[in-house]
């Protein structure tokens, strides 16, 4: 039966592990793209399209693959018509996690067990909209109802963190909402708008940026400001992993040429990027932060649509760069100085699962179990096969039991059932190993492992609640 209580749980041990150990634990959502302003202002959603499809480029890609006109995806057609086009697409999603996520969201938040299709869309539209009028469907209520202990947003160094400050002052909202430091725009010197961004960064940091050293100082200042406002996590979104060596004079020359739009070679860019990541990482280590490194995406592939819609609209895919050499040297350069922070490594390309899975063991430390982590199946790998492949690689090469688990990486307030989805897949994988005689029915240890991966490992690792 579709989406019953044993959904994704294929054996008795899996059912037991999920129902008794994983199901009711809080959620530690340490990386997402929720807007702190929306959490703070806590306004009601206009309709189910806004909460269900607004900003969700996963769903937009599926609609495009189904031949839906862009007018009904990101265009100016009425919300109801856009929702109907999504309903038209859903029945074709066999084998796609979006089919599962969509119906988990309908069931868990709205109590709707009917599948979404053109035949049911009108009824579901009306039922959801009626329920959305209730205060229990405002953003903060949705977070609380989902039993979320911590939300980590993704924030630019130039942000004044106004809404994080307001959220921290609330007395009727228990979830910790903390910023994460994302300095990509200061590091990606070859991207359009680099010089304008550096000017913004200088204003935010209260300094005039004239040279490379000023950029480094500005980032250090902003890290300190973020730390004062509860930040303990950073995030770097990289196509590949940059590494380079050279002189300080060369860094200054590279920066000055980039600021006036002169050509910078790939090797020079890697040296600049690596140097600034090292600057940031030393501060992260000093302050006890965690550094996240996301690799393997090639973004904005469709120039026409990028110019029309901008970034993060569903035109990104998996890159196939080699990362082992540069990643090894980047981490080693920090370890040699004693300045390697807690680090989570993600890859969008599954070919690198074993690269990351083996790289972890080179740089672990006694400060905390699993100091260097292999991040959860990310983006295009955020589905059963991708999650299982990541966990199996980690289990084969390291300690799955010390894994900090799932994150939503989402812009939607309805995305928390993805943690349920992950927990069911994780319990099924472990249950399979137990029932096939590959691990004993050791209840005490199984409980520790399942609850650790579900919640407690992240709670201990990030030390934020």
Q: Describe it for me?
A:
By secondary structure, the protein is of the alpha/beta class. The protein contains 20 helices and ten strands. The protein has helices at 12-22, 36-41, 48-52, 57-65, 79-89, 97-110, 121-132, 139-145, 162-168, 184-187, 194-205, 212-228, 248-259, 266-287, 303-309, 324-337, 353-359, 384-397, 417-435, 443-462; strands at 27-29, 148-152, 176-178, 180-181, 233-238, 290-295, 297-298, 317-318, 342-347, 372-374. The strands form three sheets. Strands 4-5-6-9-10 form a five-stranded parallel beta sheet, covered by helices on one side. α17 links the parallel β9 and β10 (372-374). α11 crosses α12 (212-228) and α18 packs across α19. The longest helix has 22 residues, at 266-287. It is globular, with a radius of gyration of 22 Å. The two termini are 39 Å apart. The mean pLDDT is 97.
């Amino acid at each position: 039966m579709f989406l019953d209580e044993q959904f994704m749980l294929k054996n008795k041990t899996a059912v037991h592990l999920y129902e008794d150990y994983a199901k009711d634990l809080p959620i530690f959502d340490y990386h997402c793209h929720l807007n702190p302003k929306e959490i703070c202002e806590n306004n009601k959603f206009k309709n189910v399209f806004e909460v269900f499809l607004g900003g969700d480029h996963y769903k937009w890609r599926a609609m495009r693959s189904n031949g839906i006109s862009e007018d009904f995806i990101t265009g100016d057609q009425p919300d109801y018509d856009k929702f109907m086009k999504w309903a038209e697409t859903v029945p074709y999603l066999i084998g796609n996690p979006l089919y599962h996520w969509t119906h988990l969201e309908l069931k868990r938040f709205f109590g709707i067990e009917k599948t979404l299709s053109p035949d049911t869309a009108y009824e579901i539209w009306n039922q959801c909209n009626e329920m959305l009028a209730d205060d229990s469907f405002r953003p903060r209520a949705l977070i609380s109802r989902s039993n979320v202990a911590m939300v980590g947003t993704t924030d630019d160094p130039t942000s004044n963190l106004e809404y994080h400050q307001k959220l921290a002052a609330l007395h009727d909202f228990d979830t910790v909402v903390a910023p994460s430091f994302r300095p990509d725009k200061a590091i990606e010197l070859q991207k359009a708008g680099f010089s304008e961004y550096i000017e913004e960064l200088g204003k935010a940091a209260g300094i005039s940026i004239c040279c490379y050293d000023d950029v480094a100082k500005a980032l250090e200042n902003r890290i300190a400001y973020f730390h004062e406002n509860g930040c303990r996590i950073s995030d770097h979104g990289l196509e590949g992993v940059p590494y380079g060596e050279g002189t300080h004079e060369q860094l200054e020359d590279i920066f000055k040429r980039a600021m006036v739009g002169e050509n910078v070679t790939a090797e020079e860019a890697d040296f600049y990027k690596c140097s600034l990541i090292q600057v940031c990482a030393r501060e992260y280590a000093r302050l006890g932060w965690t550094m996240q490194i996301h690799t393997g995406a090639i973004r904005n592939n469709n120039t026409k649509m990028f110019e029309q819609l901008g970034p993060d609209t569903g035109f990104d895919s998996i890159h196939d760069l080699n990362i082992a050499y540069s990643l090894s040297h980047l981490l080693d350069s920090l370890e040699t100085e004693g300045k390697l922070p807690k680090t989570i490594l993600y890859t969008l390309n599954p070919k690198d699962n074993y690269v990351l899975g083996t790289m972890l063991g080179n740089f672990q430390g006694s400060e905390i179990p699993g100091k260097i982590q292999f991040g959860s199946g990310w983006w295009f790998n955020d589905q059963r096969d991708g999650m299982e492949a990541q966990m199996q690689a980690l289990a084969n090469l390291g300690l799955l039991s010390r894994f900090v688990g799932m994150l939503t990486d989402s812009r939607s307030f309805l995305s928390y059932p993805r943690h349920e989805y992950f927990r069911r897949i994780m319990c099924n994988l472990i249950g399979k190993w137990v029932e096939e005689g590959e691990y004993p029915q050791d209840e005490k240890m199984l409980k520790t492992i399942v609850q650790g991966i579900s919640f407690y490992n992240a709670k201990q690792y990030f030390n934020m609640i």
